[in-house]
Amino acid sequence: MKVGLFIPCYIDQFYPQVGVATLQLLERHGCSVHFPVDQTCCGQPMANSGFASAGKGCDQNFARLFRDCDHIVAPSGSCVLHIKEHLKDASDPEGSAHIRRHIYELTEFLTDILQIETLGARFPHRVGLHNSCHGQRGLHLSSMSERMLPSFSKPARLLSMVEGLEVVMPVRVDECCGFGGTFSVFEEAVSVRMGRDRIEEHAANDVEYITGVDTSCLMHLEGLLRRQGSPVRTIHIAEILNSVS
Amino acid sequence: MKTMTHAAAAEVFNQDAARTRWHDETLWFVRQKRDRAAQTLPEWETLRSWASQIKDHTLSHLDEYLSEFERNALANGVQVHWAADAAEHNRIIHEIISRHGIRRMVKSKSMLTEECGLNEYLHEQGIEVIDTDLGERIVQLRHEHPSHIVLPAIHLKREDVSETFHEHLHTEAGNHDPQYLTEAARLHLRERFVAAELAITGVNFAIAETGGFVVCTNEGNADMGAHAARVHIACMGFEKIIPKAEHLGVFLRLLARSATGQPVTTYNSHFKKSLPGREMHIVIVDNSRSRQLGREDFRNSLKCIRCGACFNTCPVYRRSGGHSYHTAVAGPIGSILTPNLDMRAHADLPFASTLCGSCTNVCPVKIDIHDQLWKWRQVLAAEGHVSWTKRVSMQMAAFVLSRPGLYRLAGRMGRGVLKTMPWLAEHRWNPWSKSRALPEPPAESFRDWYLRNRKS
Amino acid sequence: MSSRDSILKAIAANRPLAQPLPLIDLSMVSRPVDPLESFRTVLGNIGAATVLLSSVDELSAELADARDQGLRVINLVAGAGAMDAVDPAAEASSLEDVDIACLSGTICVAENGAIWVPEQNMGNRLLPFICTQLMLVVDRADIVATMHHAYATIDAFAEGFGAFIAGPSKTADIEQSLVIGAHGAKGLTVYII
């Protein structure tokens, strides 16, 4: 199985350890991972700001690099959702369609495609799980508090396989953290307020870490935590699932 | 109305942190009541589908159903008026008032009349309308607008209401008891009801097959006005139409549960004919709705039944307040409806969202609200309603991100700057770092690591 | 062109492709196990009182007592003692001092406590709203499971007016604090025969 690894731009630049954990995790579970080194960005920042049309270059680059992969996996629900919903390279409609159908967020891929039942990971900590909206409501990584449907959570199920780890959910289990891409700067006041409210609920649970499937949300929360001087740290779920000695 | 952008108004709102928290928690409480009410019905998601399909069907036969409704209403002796826009709506009502020489009138909740600016228009003509919904009366006395379509005074605390009532209704100073204040409003408005010559109401549902319409309230104010006055004017946006009375079963099961978590509103009044010697009028309003109907990406916003569930669940609305939206209909649904009315004036609103998608999930008629917010952003950018700074920065980003070599260079330079000269990025003019630390730049990118460890 | 015609023309030009109506399959609708119990519980939750009666006659004494205390009672329920006449055209000023209105409801909805009151049972359209205390007399055989069933049973637009009434009037417009007794009746007692 040829798995194309997509490492979103901000992870590539600022959180390489998330990329490393994702790669090692996939390799350990038998995937032959291909990382196209010319990849950049999914185009979401432009599109969410109203300039999807400006993202054509990103689309072309993405389609060219990933069209031949059986599956494409990324450690980000948000970027995956963007590709799934909006990737359109006019010069390669077939390749684009293939990618849209075969791109997966990491926990989704581990759960649905690799059907992981054991991880061999150990992370003896109390961890708060942040449900990132695009992964949850867009990719249906877990049930949603608004919908009256059976409850499940792909990320929580994977975390439950990690030895020593205790998952604690905040009171509002799936409230947005307020990152929202450029929302975080253009609506700074509300964004910060939303992030602080999330942190407060997690801190009240005495968690050591806040984890999630999206580094973007975690970057926002981490920025607030560090500025507050909080001992709570953020960690991407790939790093926890990859905690093997 | 204020012209401050949502972001600027929201920043002001957030300066009072305790009040912002209270606003957030109060509305979250309503959202939780909605959840509990929905959980009692195993068929909840089925009901949403039915409601959505009935509305989809209705929109696809809208002109036929409106004609059928008009025919039946006329046969019932109701006078039917059509208003192309807000100004015509206001003129029609003014004309009815003038014709009867009416001086005393009451109005129950109608977001349409808010949208059309009816109160202001009539005020300019020297005519005062008394709003009778408690929340609307409170904001009217304060010369404010509703901040929520179902809970008009949700931005106010009991102390605020107490002060307003002390000033206008002469209640005891410092008595903040909601029971006491509500009783005072009851007595004050009783006089107005009993004296009312004309009553204006909204319409929740208009039924094509009967020419009748349904008005839902908890307070009973629509009925008190409509049955006391000799002239009743019901105002409706044309999207309020549904085909048959049996469809009310679906909508009334969803409306109150979605709005407040009640199993149904207290009064669900079915109007068909006026009493002999009295008059009933219906004003059917377009006001750009037909244009929205023609926008394929946005037409299903017209399915809205104005329950307000998207307001209560919206993490941005809860922390910015309804007035930040500077429109009659605030919240997520307002942000997809109002750009259709005036793109330039409301260009900020589709950006007042993280696109979290919770609004779409609670919507009882399955409007894809967050997807429409995204689509409005594209339209607004294409039509030139996005600031040039954002436009230029996005074009620059797109330029860099579509060129792998340039992207890597920019990334390396950016990380270098953060490492050696963090003050260049982390200063008070960077909105990110006002309250947030910037990420600590790693020594190498993932790609660098990959090339070192996997490609050698 | 009149506004009417231009609006209808614009709609016809802009309307989407025809979509079908859904089939409202009542087998998919949940029903309370004990409709009477559910009806009473919901009414209790929304601020109404319920009383089980074996016969409507049991109300006679209560209404007579109220009259004796000087309360203005309008009773339109046959069998519940003295009946009153009310003019459908009566003005609000002549009804605003009604303390108790005793009316018959028809269909009762177990899921939400709503009771259908047709115009002919109101005497005057204002009465159920303007009175201070509303008494609704209903037959337990008229309890249906849900609003779907209710609309299948009644003809909601047979008369000029009719209402589903669920509880006393209420508001939470001040800080989401629930207050019973906004503009309509301050109390509702449902007598189930």
Which SSEs are present, and which pair or pack?
The complex is a heterotrimer of chains A (245), B (456) and C (193).
Chain A: E1 2-5, H1 9-14, H2 16-28, E2 32-34, H3 44-48, H4 56-66, E3 71-74, H5 77-86, H6 93-102, E4 103-105, H7 106-113, E5 126-129, H8 133-138, H9 154-159, E6 166-168, H10 183-186, H11 188-204, E7 209-212, H12 215-228, E8 233-236, H13 237-241
Parallel strand pairs in A: 1-2, 1-3, 3-4, 5-6, 5-7, 7-8
Chain B: H1 6-14, H2 17-39, H3 44-60, H4 62-75, E1 79-83, H5 86-100, E2 105-107, H6 111-116, H7 118-124, E3 129-131, H8 134-141, H9 158-169, H10 178-195, E4 198-201, E5 205-207, E6 212-217, H11 221-228, E7 231-237, E8 241-242, H12 247-259, E9 267-271, E10 279-285, H13 289-294, H14 309-313, H15 315-318, H16 331-341, H17 358-362, H18 369-382, H19 388-401, H20 404-420, H21 431-435, H22 446-453
Parallel strand pairs in B: 1-10, 2-3, 2-4, 4-7, 5-8, 7-10
Antiparallel strand pairs in B: 5-6, 6-9
Helix pairs in contact in B: 2-12, 3-12, 9-10, 16-18
Chain C: H1 3-14, H2 35-45, E1 49-52, H3 58-68, E2 73-75, E3 100-104, E4 108-109, E5 115-118, H4 119-122, H5 127-130, E6 133-138, E7 143-144, H6 147-153, E8 161-165, E9 170-171, E10 179-180, E11 187-192
Parallel strand pairs in C: 1-11, 2-3, 3-6, 4-7, 6-11
Antiparallel strand pairs in C: 5-8, 9-10
Count up the helices of chain A.
13
**Fold-level CATH name of chain C:** Rossmann fold
Number of strands of chain C: 11
Q: Can you give the mean pLDDT of chain A?
A: 96
Structural class of chain A: alpha/beta
The total beta strand count of chain A reads 8
Which characteristics define this entry?
heterotrimer, A: 245 residues, alpha/beta, Rossmann fold, 4-stranded parallel β-sheet, 47% helix, 12% strand, C: 193 residues, two-stranded parallel sheet, 6 helices, 11 strands, 25% helix, globular
